């Protein structure tokens, strides 16, 4: 684990000199990569979905218990299963001063459905037939069929409201109605936001936020230790957090999280289409050991895409405890014989340059070697990595679900055979018509007990067929300088704490 040792050495050998005093008006947050799109209709990566809610408002808002509260919509009713009528706030203005009305809500939804913008989020709105705006404060959504996930797909992180006429270039000059307004973005360098004077939400104490793109985890840790950065959430290795917690100028906040690490397979690949290969890889992984060594036990084993506290979660699925003998037997039964060098076949795993993703891949490389699989690890800058996996140009990759796995609609988005990119995130091109039917049933039923039955079956199928391996739920871990206070972190690891945090010199 050379990289981990290097990280610790770098941290422990730092000097306290050389850092200029930070501006009391600006909070600098280090992030791993640039958001792929600050158009809330398009961006589905973690940075986009965490920064967008600071700039944009949604119709409804997810609370700490994953229930939905009023937001832009003060109330709503469903006179029948195919109709949702929303009543909007009348005191909301965009950052350019224009009022936000039902016309903007209608346009936002229509533009995602009619091809004005090309977005993977369009699939989540496929059950909408049409949208009416009978007056400035009322929006009526008419459905083709019942959609139990509609409200979730209209919530923060999933969708923000944009002004009428916002086109395909909107991401370069986004205009929202949230507590912060967009100032500038320099790709792979920074995003600048400033406190908005037009927001209907409580005025943030932070005047200016600079999201500094720092791909290297060691450099992120150094920036925090020197005080040239103020905060970082879920972006350091556990070893680095353990080193930084000893620094008198820093604090660490943590709690149970819902963010999920996973490995996905290209199920159309000539090797990985064999279920026995995917299962062998699962049995070859010593997940408890990885959690202990890589995450310092700041993670919990995952058997499902949904977090354990979710009403639809089940642990009654096929399990894959560490069992290299069983892994070898599966590969032998599949006819994957070892060569003279002990290797059965070669696989390539793609990752971003994120340090923990690379370390995970390196550990997996060692563990798969024991069952005769030679794993090549290839790391790319995030935009290239994300482009490759969206196109299906991979055999295996590792990534995280950040918040999106808190509603069962994630099963359709990630595994429905009609949701290959750009219509969704079924990047492994997994096809199962039985699963498609269960997902459709669960999404259209209004009876939560019946929906749970469907989703339990979905989780059991996915655990048996393994288009991906759910690894662990990461604790939410936030490291910040002591000048940043009143931190309230969410289990989802969002950036919402920046709305209420205070800063002193």
List keywords for this structure.
505 residues; alpha+beta; 6-stranded mixed sheet; 4-stranded mixed sheet; 21 strands; 29% helix; disordered N terminus
Your description of this structure?
This protein is an alpha+beta fold and 505 residues long. It contains 14 helices and 21 strands. Strands 14-18-13-17-15-16 form a six-stranded mixed beta sheet. Strands 1-10-9-8 form a four-stranded mixed beta sheet. A four-stranded antiparallel beta sheet has the order 4-5-7-6, covered by helices on one side. It is globular and about 70 Å long.
> What is the gyration radius calculated from CA atoms?
23 Å
Major beta sheet, strand line-up: 14-18-13-17-15-16
Helix fraction bin: 25-40%
Shape: globular
Distance N to C terminus: 38 Å
- Enumerate how many helices there are, as a single number: 14
Query: Sheet bearing the most strands, described?
Result: 6 strands, mixed
Please identify the structural class as seen in this structure. Answer: alpha+beta
Q: What ranges have pLDDT less than 50 throughout 5 or more consecutive residues?
A: 1-19
Beta strand %: 15-25%
Strand count: 21
The overall pLDDT, averaged over residues, is: 92
At a glance:
It is built from 14 helices and 21 strands.
